[in-house]
Amino acid sequence: YVYYEGDCFGSCRNPYIPQDVPNPSMAQVLQKPLKGEGLEKRKEACKMASEMFGKMMAGEEYDKENAKEFYEMMCEDIKKERKRIGGDWAVASVTMSQENRDYIRSMLGPDLVFVVLNMETEDVKERVRIRHNGAEEAVDMMMTINKLCEAGTEDEDNTVNIVVTKDMTKEDVVS
């Protein structure tokens, strides 16, 4: 499968993280910056998204239409790249609500499956601490986002909820 890291799209970096890296989420900082056609348009969208996520992480009101615009651009990129590369894809990205997931599904098609990872608050904090070498600023930022995230619902098509516990390894989560 092709692994596409949504955070790389948002930071104008190569979104294709190698599958064998020990920490795919953190590997994005090592990805090469994008260049070429469409970069300026993506930079504008990423700047808008960065401002939106900044407000979100600060607990401030943000424009949900900006989120749609960002997801629309990312979906267009995914569609273009899937056509070019082919194969099965796994896209890692935060989609905080059913509204966001429904919008993305409308862009990418009904065969799209969302896997929503759900964890207890203290377990999330511990995993973020480990991933970010104990940086409490990262924990605080991720907890603000975590509070905004909604689990998938029973009536949500092609959405799977996985409850991740502190005792689970990465291998446990994906199996």
Task: Explain this structure.
This protein has 175 residues and is mainly alpha-helical. It is 51% helix and 11% strand. It has a two-stranded parallel ribbon. Helix 3 crosses helix 4 and helix 4 runs parallel beside helix 5. The protein is globular and about 45 Å long. The protein starts with a strand and ends with a helix. The mean pLDDT is 89.
User: What percent strand?
Assistant: 5-15%
Strand adjacency order, main sheet: 1-2
Structural class: mainly alpha
Count of β-strands: 4
Question: Which overall shape is indicated by the principal axes computed on the Cα atoms?
Answer: globular
Average pLDDT, all residues: 89
List the defining traits of the structure above:
globular, mainly alpha, 8 helices, 175 residues, single chain
Chain-wise SSE layout:
Layout: E1 2-5, H1 6-10, H2 24-27, H3 39-57, H4 64-85, E2 89-92, H5 98-108, E3 114-119, H6 121-131, H7 136-148, E4 159-164, H8 170-174
Helix pairs in contact: 3-4, 4-5, 6-7
Quick structural overview:
The protein has helices at about 5-10, 25, 40-55, 65-85, 100-110, 120-130, 135-150, 170-175, and strands spanning about 1-5, 90, 115-120, 160-165. The chain has about 180 residues and is mainly alpha-helical. It is globular.
